[in-house]
Write a structure and sequence with these properties.
about 350 residues; signal; four-stranded parallel β-sheet
C-alpha cells in the first residue's frame, strides 16, 4: 500500500464523491489504525490554546461552523482536513489536540494532532512565535507512545503506531514569518539555500519519525502563498505575487525529490499531496468551483486574521469564500482540496 487511506479519506467532501462504506472497508483491509498529525495552523486543532502565544484562535468567530458552533482553536470556521479524514474513516468525528486537558484515553487510541499554528520545518520559526517546534512535536509523540503503551500494552501500542497514518503539513511560516520577516535566516542564506536548509531539516525529522515507528507518511506540499489575501494586500498586488509563488513551486519540487528517496532508503510508504495547482486554479477561477470570493477572507474586513478577527462579523455564506480569514482556508475549500487529493490517490492505485 502506497498512499494510505489517510488521503483516500481525505475528507468527506461531497457525499457523491466518496463511498464511505467502501472507504472504511478498504481501510479495514489495510489495517489503518488511526491518524497522527504534525504541522502548523493548517492542521492544529487547538494545541496552541495551551501555550503562552498570540498564535491562537480559541474565540469566535473561529469555530462558528464546527459541530456545536464553538471555538476550539482551529484556524478556520469549521473542520480541518484531518477532522474530515478521521470522520470518513469512522474512527472519530474529529482529531483532538494532544495538549487538550480534556483528552480522554479513548481518544488516544484513535489518533491525535501534535500540530501547532505558527510552526515550521525550521525550529527557529516556532521559536519566533513561541509555539511548538517540530522537534517538540516529536517529543510529545514519544510521550504519547509511552502513554498509549500503559493504556493498551506495549505490543498493541506498537501495532497501532505501525499501522497509523502520519500526516505532515507545514512550511509556509518558514518563509512568511521567518525568512521574509526576520533577518537571521535571510542573512545566512539565499532563498534557494534556505530551501535546502529546510529540506535538510525535513530529512532529519522524517528519519527521527521512522525511528519511532512511522511506516506510513503523507506530506502536504505548499500552497501558492503569494495568493494569500494578507500577502496580496501587503504587496499592494491585485493578483498573486509571482515571486512568492515561484518560491513555493521550487520548494515543492525539492520536497518531491526528497519523498522519492524515502521509500527505498527507509522503507517508509509515502504519498506526496500537491495542492499548489488546484489552489491556484480555484483562486484564478473561483466561480468554476462554486466560490464568489477568492481575494479576501470571510472574517471582518477580509484582511483580518487571528487576534484581529476576534468578535468580528463574518460573511453570511461561508461556503462561497475560499479564505476564512486573511491567511487560512474555509472548510469548504478544504473539501475542494480533498476531492483533488482523492482523484490523485485513486490514480496511484489504478
Amino acid at each position: 500500500m502506497r498512499a494510505f487511506v489517510v488521503l483516500l479519506a481525505v475528507l468527506v467532501v461531497h457525499a457523491q464523491a466518496i463511498d464511505v462504506a467502501k472507504l472504511r472497508l478498504f481501510a479495514a483491509k489495510n489495517n489503518v489504525s488511526c491518524i497522527y498529525v504534525f504541522g502548523d495552523s493548517s492542521v492544529d486543532p487547538g494545541n496552541n490554546n495551551n501555550l503562552m502565544t498570540d498564535q491562537k484562535v480559541n474565540f469566535l468567530p473561529y469555530g462558528k461552523d464546527f459541530y456545536d458552533g464553538r471555538p476550539t482553536g482551529r484556524f478556520t470556521n469549521g473542520r480541518l482536513a484531518t477532522d474530515l479524514i478521521a470522520d470518513a474513516l469512522g474512527h472519530t468525528r474529529y482529531i483532538p489536540a494532544y495538549l487538550d486537558p480534556n483528552l480522554t484515553n479513548a481518544q488516544l487510541v484513535n489518533g491525535v494532532s501534535f500540530a501547532s499554528g505558527g510552526s515550521g520545518y525550521d525550529d527557529l520559526t516556532a521559536q519566533l512565535s513561541n509555539v511548538i517546534s517540530l522537534a517538540k512535536q516529536l517529543d510529545y509523540f514519544r510521550e504519547y507512545k509511552a502513554r498509549l503503551g500503559r493504556l493498551v500494552g506495549k505490543k498493541r501500542a506498537e501495532n497501532i503506531v505501525t499501522n497509523g497514518v502520519f500526516l505532515l503539513s507545514m512550511g509556509t511560516n518558514d518563509f512568511l514569518q521567518n525568512y521574509y520577516l526576520e533577518p537571521t535566516r535571510s542573512n545566512q542564506f539565499t532563498i534557494d539555500k534556505y530551501q535546502d536548509y529546510l529540506i535538510s531539516a525535513m530529512t532529519k525529522y522524517i528519519k527521527a519519525m521512522h525511528a519511532e515507528g512511522v511506516r506510513r507518511l503523507t506530506v502536504v506540499g505548499m500552497e501558492p502563498f503569494g495568493c494569500v489575501p494578507l500577502i496580496r494586500a501587503l504587496k499592494g498586488s491585485v493578483g498573486c505575487d509571482d515571486e512568492y509563488n515561484k518560491v513555493a513551486l521550487s520548494f515543492n519540487s525539492k520536497i518531491k525529490s526528497l519523498m522519492a528517496t524515502l521509500e527505498p532508503s527507509l522503507g517508509i510508504k509515502n504519498f506526496y499531496t500537491d495542492i499548489y495547482g488546484l489552489v491556484f486554479d480555484v483562486i484564478q477561477n473561483p466561480k468554476k468551483y462554486g466560490f464568489v470570493e477568492a481575494s479576501k477572507g470571510c472574517c471582518g474586513s477580509g484582511l483580518d486574521f487571528g487576534q484581529t478577527c476576534k468578535g468580528l462579523t463574518t460573511c453570511v455564506d461561508r461556503s462561497k469564500y475560499v479564505y476564512w480569514d486573511a491567511v487560512h482556508f474555509t472548510e469548504e475549500m478544504y473539501k475542494i482540496i480533498s476531492e483533488e487529493a482523492l482523484k490523485t490517490l485513486m490514480k496511484t492505485f489504478a
